[in-house]
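Worked example (supplementary).
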Amino acid sequence: MHIVILGNSTVAVAAVEAIRSIDNMENKITVVSNEPFFTYSHPLLPNYLVGEVEEDEEKFSYRRKGFYEQNKLNTILGDAAVFIDKNAKTVELKSGKEIAYDRLIVATGGIPIVPPMEGVNLENVFTFTNLTEVKKFKTALPNIKKCVVVGGGLIGTRLTEKLSIYGVETYLIELLERLVVLALDDYGAGLIRKELEKAGGHIITGDSVKSILGEKKVCGVKLASGKEISCDAVAIAIGVRPNMDIAKNAGLEVGRGGVITDEYMRTSDPNIFSGGDIVETYDLTSNQRRSIPILPIAYAQGEVAGLNILNREVKFKGGFPMNSMKIGGIEFISMGTVNPEKDAEIIERKYDNGDYKKFIIKNNCLSGAIFIGDIEKAGMFNWMIKERFNVKRIKDYFLKEDFGWKYFDRDTRNLRISRQLK
Amino acid sequence: MKWMKNLKTYIPGDFVVVRDDNKCIRCKACVEQCSFEANFYDDEEDRVWSWDGHCVGCQRCVYICPTDAIRVEPREEIYRHHENWKIYHIKGIEKRANFGGAPIVSMGTDKEYPIYWDHILLNASQVTNPAIDPLREPMELKTFIGRKPSVLEIKKSKYSKTKIPPQLELEIPIMFSAMSYGAVSKNVIEALGRASEAMATCFNSGEGGLYKEHYKFGNRLIVQVASGRFGVHKDYLNIASAIEIKIGQGAKPGIGGHLPGEKVSKEISETRMMPRGADAISPAPHHDIYSIEDLRQLIYALKEATRYRKPVIVKIAAVHNVAAIASGIARAGADAICIDGFKGGTGASPQVIRDCVGIPLELALASVDTRLREEGIRNEVSLIASGGTRCSTDVIKAIALGADAVYIGTAALVAIGCHLCQQCQRGNCAWGIATQDPFLSKRVNPDIAAEKLINLLKVWSLEIKEMMGAMGINSIESLRGNRLALRGVGLTDTDLNILGILPAGA
Amino acid sequence: MMKIIKVNEDVCVLCHLCEIACIVEHSESKDILKVFKREKPRPIARCAVEEDKPLSFSLMCRHCDDAPCVKACSNGSMHRDERGYVVVDEETCIGCWMCIMVCPYGVIRRDERRQKWNLSTKCNMCPDRDIPACVEVCPNEALVLGDVVECT
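After joint prediction of all chains, the assembly is encoded as:
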């Protein structure tokens, strides 16, 4: 069987690992990517930008050297797929090449959201989702003294931190009243803001960039409030949207949040699978189908797609957003729906040492959590959200500094620890 | 260092905890393990200190310390020497004067009384009758406890015509003596039960009833009926393979038992059939036994309740006229008599009782065996010797003196960690044995403990076989009461006479 | 079949020696006195004792079959070694704590002493030993090496 994977990141690697774990190298796998790089670690892009890690370092790669050879992959890197003919089961590449497949995994990921505003095509306006873009940014970086970052989400804040530490005078513009809206609450966002300011960043909330100024090259931005900020570069980090034009053109069913798949990660065409930032994922905590562009979900979906190509009947039942981040001296992990509706029960505590924990409980199930500082037990709550564990009896202990398995009832604890309970 | 000395009651302790600070890594394992609060950690100084006065010499910290930084040493006596006023007496008076109570102690007397076992030697075959190699020849330790008929009529078919009274069949003549659930922890009993099953011998429930989890050991169990009658009911009697009436015990002859209310947990109160938290008091006498006839009534009541299917053992402490008492017990219908010497004592008792009431097992056993033979009723009862049996040679000597089997208590506890610190009565045994504290009792892992007990019994059995082989005897039956196999050294004529053995060389 | 460390809370005596043994095993000198007297910084124990008397037990990585930490790792540092155990590649780990975020047992520790890149620290089943140090030191067999009996 010839399996073609469009994409060379998390989903592709997960699918390859899943397939190779069971197929004895029997199937032919071809990986196609528009970027000409060895699979790399997206979360390290901000570090790469400021030179904390270089492209040739092992830690920058998503897998170790030799991954393609060990898994006997054919790679077509630097040549984008432009059309899928699902009836003929072929993929047409930009170079004109045509590849026939038996099964196809579409994992083209997300593309940055760029608002339609004046000046986005000027020189020194960058986006921040892939290495190709970041390389351009990196090349220009030595000559940048002042930069405006648009969007105060996870990427925007990290970028602001890194640039500020690097020595670029950075302005972060966020439309809403606070930072990291999706992953943190007011208190957490306040801490992040302080950390960014400590690092030298300038934070402007409740305002947005109306237009980017400049002739050929960026020289400043104009905000909705009328304020103008002069700068040499603009980084747009508003977020990503599914890169699903190719899927749409192929006639696959798509929704608002991305390509639609069943629990087996199969699209509307039985021979085409998908996963990652491009698909709509069922959010276990908000009961909605939407795009959840995070690495753990992409991996899980890629793995499920790979296994189901080999008819293993494995399901992906849904996920929820989760993030782990470090800004300055603050480490935080958030998961699930952290800005709940009114009927949810909230347990929170600010500890003397500055740590903070918050739990959102709905119908005796945990639906979201925030950890700042003391994060080491966060995964246990992740498990509780995923398994919809009934927290009625245990929630009173959530805020204890020494929270652990000792607070569970004896049977649950022992079954869990002996790996007899999922 | 915290101020811990109460000068109104201060008496120097018996031990000093010596910690090599160069080797101490502040892991605090000793702090957590000491249930007597003798070790503590001072985080300001970053140092582990010891409060020597609290140390009971149980060696738990020595055992657990990963760098071997701790030694427990006897505290140097600082009083001027006086032949009459030993430190022991001075401290004894101080304790009574300071606390206004009689000291309670345990683990049998620690005073210097003659240990007759150590003055008795065994025989070996030379030339005239060959020794036997137990690794090549079959050797039998099988023992039956129970009344044996005087005459055995055999039918032609080789089956006995005589009805044999109920017997307790043991593969080895060593049983575990009575230690109640309450005195020792659940895990200890679990281990004793498992070891008894594995070695096909028996253990004894003690007077505390039988915990529901331990009913599974029924066919390797002797249940005890004592003066408090705790936990005695139909199922309890019927599950066991033998019943023991405890009249007295070597640790405290003439004294009842007292389990403090703190030790009476939910499980114990259920098992003993008594209110939770109340003191469990076993009276000194059985209030329904004031004569041999009364005892006979109880023996037959128990036999009746169990349809005459189980041997009934009567346990008494070795006291001055033990031979006459034993004769009466045999005549009252008991199937076996257990004689508990004064060195025995997994039980807690007042210090004065422990240290000077009762007589040594060796003398009592010999005189009982002699008396029963003289009266021609030795076959009507089996004799079980108990109290202070330390090694396989003690066992074999007891059997040669006339015992059918031996109970071991302290030896079993030592096998599973007991270091004879003699603090059983305090309920916070650092080795998790004599405690009901659910945290401390975890320290006995029944798997490990059972394995150690099995090892002990296996090795002792092998040693007994070796010694029997040396004597040219291949069955323990042939050694029973065979006092010619014994010789005494360093004993007076009177001792030899009572023991019924010849002096070495004779 | 892969063996994991089985935890028996019923016989844990709360001596913390598993943690001590783990620190020693993962130290440079592997000598208990040198580790505690000289080595600075000392390694972090990969097992942790939880205590709520009378309950106590030590817990370390369960080496899940479908290890979420391996799947969530942002650059493939968390991986399975040739024995099948989940281990961290210390060279490449960047301390992003994605593994901590998803570890359903909460048994991954942060080693923040490495300045530029923090390090995820977890049980690696003592690759240099036949029996893990904690199992060997446990005085009461509260930690034993045993087969996994897995059911869903």
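Two points are worth noting when inspecting this output. Residues 17-25 of chain C form the longest helix (9 residues). Helices of chain C lie at 17-25, 32-37, 68-72, 98-102, 133-137.
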